[in-house]
Structure formats: structure tokens, C-alpha cells
Amino acid sequence: IWIEKASMAKSNGRRVILFPLPLQGCINPMIQLAKILHSKGFSITVIHTRFNAPKASRHPLFTFLQIPDGLSEAETRTSDVTLRLALLNRRCEPAFRDCLTKLLRSADSETEEEKQRISCLIDDSGWIFTQPLAQSLNLPRLVLNTYKVSFFRNHFVLPQLRRERYLQLQDSEQDDPVEEFPPLRKKDLLRLLNEERKVLDSYSIMILETTKASSGLIFLSCEELDQDSLSQARQDFQVPIFAIGPSHTRFPGSSSSLLSPDETCIPWLDKQEDKSVIYVSFGSIATISETELMEIAWGLRNSDQPFLWVVRVGSVNGTKWIETIPEELMERLNENGKIVKWAPQQDVLKHRAVGGFLTHNGWNSTVESVCEGVPMICLPFFWDQMLNARFVSEIWMVGLHLEYRIERNEIERAIRRLLLETEGEAIRERMELLKEKVGRSVKENGLAFRSLENLVDHISSF
Ligand code: UDP
């Protein structure tokens, strides 16, 4: 469908260069943005690292250019995402500079008819060397940020909070709000600050500076999900801000998936009753312990509800996959559940049989769930997930929060509350309303729709 639509778009003779961070949660939105801009007539070049390279063959209408990233085998396997980002930022710069300079030069030297002017570079806020480079080449740079707006604008306060306090907490203070970073609670913040992300403190100062120096900031959120933060962000950054809404709503499908989705999920869901299935997935990075795997397995089994559970290969520390689940329990799990290594998540959430999502609350997963009206059970692991989970459970009230208790009874109870009890019905009704609000925003003349039009105008003005 996409190829048909896209090929109908008339080229406007302009090219946009995209440079995603090599993480699943950053590649998906960047490729979605590429599809959107292509449908508006822009040609697309994606520069990407060798590590986690997007699958070029799935996007025949885009040009893909791979640059060496300098990561060793061991560094590509590290579970320390922060370290990997720091290394990538240090090591990609020369190759990226070369690639970009060549592109600009060849665009200039083409004959007048063939000439495709390069409008701008759009890259992830996590690349910190691209702003000074783009500036030195006179190329406007737009920043794509894949967090919720309220997380992005407030997370710059973390270094200060780390310095000041919050390393010790009394039990009685656990649930107190963090005034500097609403709606986080102190126990969320404590986890955030304990993430050994000290190295990120100097990195986040660079992100702030390079974002402020950019030609604009794009969020995959909308006024309906981030109203106050968006107006505050406009003051903080003093650059044009575009909240174009959840991008996958415009071009559905998971063509940018780095892992192959298990296509047997959908026929399995077809056999289940409406809104009966709990879908379980913790995204592309989070890992769990063997004990946690067992607690989740028992929680699902004891809930007596059908479930579709994604366990990524390598996501259970110290084991390959699910081989540590005893055979007897495995047999019982197979009675009403299905465990896969990777799912076509957007299609799963769209399926009529799915009634709830036990999620780590990555921003992509959170908005995908909102867009399909699927209520959530929140089990955030780190970073922005904690804030997203508070929004889901306490501000929008479209989900339940496990409060970090990965225990069989808690999981069983939450599933039953969400899928079987009146409390769950009320949550589902609120989710339906939120879904409609966000849905209206991305439709013609909605706020996100108009923001996208403004973004296209902005890019065309360079
Ligand atoms: N995803 C998927 N199949 C899975 C699990 C996740 O396609 O089995 C996709 C999901 O739809 C989302 C992305 O991977 O677009 C995960 O991004 P998110 O921001 O939720 O979490 P992260 O992986 O960055 O922690």
C-alpha cells in the first residue's frame, strides 16, 4: 500500500538526509518519518551505521549509505546501551563527515535538471557531533527526539538532582512526587539516578546545547499527549517545534523491524475471543533475570487468560531463551498461551483479540498501545519508561502500574483486574477516549496533522 501511495507522490526535487541512532526504538520512527517525507515529494537518503543496519531491501525507494562505526564485536554485544552510544558518537564522526561532505558535493555538481538540492539533515537528538558539523557545512539540521516531550525537556535536570540528593530515601518518602520532574515519584527517580548513567550527565548537556542550536525539533507526540510540556519546550529550546503525532499511524506495518517477526502470531490471535488476550513484551533492550522469567510465566499461567508473550533471544540474563522453564510448566503455558521471539507488534495491538498489554512502556510501545486503544499494565525498566508509565497509570489513567513488583501474584492480579473486573472496564473506556483524541489529532486538520504540514513547509523553506 505504502509503495503505491509513495510512488504517486510527485518529486519536489529536494532531498532530505536522515541519520537514525542504531536502536530499534529510534530506527522505527526515523523510517516512518522517511516514509512521510517521501509521500510529500522528498527524496530520501538514510545514512546508517553498520551496527543494527536497517534492512535496505525493504525500502527500495530510499537510498541507504552505510558508514563504518568502529565498534568491535564485543562492543556490539554489550548490554550497556549508554556506553555503546558514547562510543558511536566518538567513532562515527569522521566517516559521517566524509559521507555527508561527498553527498553535498555531488548534489552541487549535478547538471541543472538532475540537481536535487539537499534541504536538510534530520538526525536523532542522541547524535551530538552532527550539529557543529552541519553548521560548518551550512546545512540546516533538524532534531528528531523519540521520547515523550515531558521526558526530553525535564531530563536535563537529572545531573543536578544527582548532585543534590535523592540517593537515600526513607520508606515513607517512596511515593512522594518529584517536584522538579512531574509526575515521577521519588522511587522512580531513585531508580533513574541509580542507573549508573553518570556518563550521561555530560552527554545530556551536549544534547541540550546542540538541540538549541538546531533548526527545529520534531517529536512523535502531539498536543493531546503532551500539552503543557510542548508549550514549555517551545520556551526552553527557542527553535521551531513540531509534534507530528505517533508516526506509525500514517504508514502502518513494521517494515523497519531489525528482527524477524513471528508471523504465526496473527493466526493464533484469530482463534482467540475478543479482548481476551494479554500481550506481553518489553521492547528491544530490557532484560530480565531467570527468576523474573519464572514469576512472569507463573503469573500468566495463574491468570488463566490467553497470552502472547515475546521473549527476545538473549533477553533472559544468563540463558539463551526460555529453556530454563521446566517442562511441566511449559506444557501448562502452552495450553492457553504462545511464546515468540519477536512479534509484529503493531499488528498484534490492532488485533480484536488483544485486551491488554503488559509493557515496559518504551515511548513507541506506549503510543502504539494508545493508538489501538489497548489498556496497559506498566512494568517500566529504565530511563523514560518510568515517566511514560506514570502518565499511563496516573495522568491518563489508562493502565495499572505494577510498581516494579515482578511477582507472580501481582502479575496474575493485575491481568485479572484489567481483563475481567469492572475496574478494567473503566480503564478501557478512558483508553477509548484517549485513542479517539489522538486519532483526531493525526487526521486531516487535527493538531498533529497540521504540525506535520508545518514541518514540511519548514523543510521546504530551507
Ligand atoms: N517491537 C516489535 N516486536 C516486538 C517487540 C517490539 O515490533 O516483539 C517494536 C515495537 O512495535 C516498537 C519497538 O519495537 O515500535 C520498541 O520501541 P520502544 O520505544 O517501545 O522500546 P525500546 O525497544 O526502545 O525499549
Write structural notes for this entry.
This protein is α/β, with parallel strands linked by helices and 462 residues long. The protein has 20 helices and 13 strands. The chain has helices spanning 2-8, 24-39, 73-77, 81-91, 93-109, 130-136, 149-154, 158-164, 186-193, 199-212, 223-237, 265-270, 290-303, 327-336, 345-350, 363-372, 384-395, 408-420, 422-442, 447-460; strands at 14-19, 43-49, 63-67, 117-124, 141-145, 217-219, 241-243, 277-281, 307-310, 337-340, 354-359, 376-378, 399-401. It has a seven-stranded parallel β-sheet, sandwiched between helices. It has a six-stranded parallel β-sheet with strand order 10-9-8-11-12-13, with helices on both faces. It is globular and about 70 Å long. It binds uridine-5'-diphosphate. The site of uridine-5'-diphosphate has 21 residues, from helix 2, helix 15 and helix 16. Uridine-5'-diphosphate binds at residues 23-25, 28, 254, 257, 261, 281, 283-285, 310, 342-343, 345-346, 362-365, 368. InterPro entries: UDP_glucos_trans.
